[in-house]
Amino acid sequence: MQQSSDINETKTMFRSTGVVGLMTLLSRVLGLVRDIFFARLFGAFPIMDAFFVSFKIPNSFRRFFAEGAFSRAFIPVLSDYKENQDHAEVQELIDRTSGTLGVILFAITVVGIIAAPVIILIFAPGFFDDQASDMENR
Fold first, then answer.
1. pLDDT per residue over 7-34, tens digit each?
2. Which DSSP string corresponds to 13-54?
């Protein structure tokens, strides 16, 4: 009976992995469609630059936390908990991790709001120089 349960759990895990992969692919395709649409709508003007910079910053954090080091570290721990702990302890791990990430996200957001000019200089060096140059040419 245990073997049947393990097979079902493996199938469920593969199905979940497939769903995540398909959703990631869909997200990439829709992102490309969005970029094409906005490039067609706004052209190569400063408003388009501001749009891309505004997406670059949160996407960097998403890549780090959702697709990067955090998920690579957390998923094995979660899998180990699912194998060796009962459901309540697994849920407690998820709850604590979610709560901690929420607090960290809040702190990063506050710092981001306060340090916005510096962050823009880091993620888009020369952004303001280009605008000043455009103003001089007019």
1. 777 778 888 888 888 999 999 999 899 8
2. HHHHHHHHHHHHHHHHHHHHHHHHHHHHHH-SSHHHHHHHHH
